[in-house]
Design goal:
Shape: flat
Strand order of the largest sheet: 6-5-9-8-7-4-10
Strand content: 25-35%
Oligomer: single chain
Number of strands: 27
Structural class: alpha+beta
Largest sheet: 7 strands, antiparallel
Length: 387
Amino acid sequence: MKGKTRHLLFLWILGAMISCVQEDKADPQAIINHVKKTYAPDKRVALFDIQWEKDQILGETNLPEALIHLKDSLTGQKINFQDKVTILPNESLGGKHSAVVTLSVANIRSQPRHSAELATQATLGTPLRVLKKENDWYLVQTPDRYISWVDAGGIALMNEEEMNAWYTSEKVVFTDLIGHVYEGPAEESRVSDLTAGNILELIRKGTDYHEVKLPDDRKGFVKASSSTPFEEWKTSRNTSAKNLISTAKDMMGIPYLWGGTSIKGVDCSGFTKTIFFLNGKIIPRDASQQVHEGEEVDTEKNWENLETGDLLFFGNPATDESPERVVHVGMWIGDGSFIHSRGRVRISSFDPASKNYDEYELNRYLRTKRIVGKDSKNVLAVNEIIK
C-alpha cells in the first residue's frame, strides 16, 4: 500500500512539473497577436493575416518587418516553426506591383466582387500599390494606405520602369467638377468622363484643347480652360480658409454615397478627404482615422475656439462599458456652422435661431481637431504621392 502511495505521489509531482513547463512555454498565437497589435492595429491600412497551426506560421502580410519581428520573437522563446507566410506583393504578379487608375472614378470594394461593400474610391491618375490578384480583381493600397479590391477594368498595371515613366511624364489636372476627354476638338464623341482632380498625361499643349493620354494609353482632347499643368496645380494648392470653403461649397448638394470619395458621391469622411485632396493634402480615409490627426481644439462646444477648416467629429462618447465611437465628421466654416455629407452635402448650424439648426448633430458632438498647419503623421502633401 505504501508503494502504491509513493507511486501516486510521484505521478502527481510529475504532472505538476509538466503543467509548470507548459504554463511557462509561450503561446505562439499570443505572440502573433502581439506583433499584429504592434504593427497592424488597423486592418484597413495594414495586412497581417497570420495564424499558428501545427508548428507552422501560415497566412500573408504586406509588412516584411513585422514578419521578421514575429520570427525573432518565436525563436527567442525557443519555439520551433516552419515559415509558410506569403509576403505581399505576390510573386505571381510578375513584377507589376503598381497600377494607375484609368477611370474617372474607380470603385474599390471590401471583397473581390461587385456586390461587395464599397470601401472607398480612387480617381483617374491615382497611383496604387498592387498586392495580389484573385480572378479579375486586384488587392490594392491607395495613397492614403487603404487596402481593398479593385476590378481589373479600372486600372493599368505597371512594372517599376513603366511606373517611373508615368511619374516623370508631363501631366495636367482636370479642374472643373465634371467634364470629358473627347476624341477630337470638335467634341463629336467622348473617350472618357472626367471629375475634379483627375490626372492625365500631356501629349501636346494647345490654345483651346490639350491632347492627352490616359494611363491605359487611350488618347483624346481636353479643354485647356478646364485643366492645369500638374506642376502649376500642385504648387498652387494650399489649405487656406478661402480655398477649403470654396471647394466644400462647390460640392453642395452632391448625394451621399457610402464609400464615396469623389464628385459623383461622397460619404462624410470621403467629403472631408476630397476637400483636402483638391487643396493639396491627402488625409486618412475614415472619420475614425481622421480623428487621430492634428491637434485637439475643443471637446466642450466652445465654438469660439474653432477655425475654418477644423474637423468636427460626432458619435457615441466613451462609457465604462465601451470606448468612444466616431461615426461622422464635418468641416467648420465659421459663424456657428459646418459643412458635411449626410443625405447630401449640406450646411448645418449649432445656432438654434438658424434655418440650418442641426440638433441631431449637436447632441452627438464629440470633439474638434485641427489638421491645417499642424503636424499629422498620416497627412501627406499630394506631391509626396503623385510626383
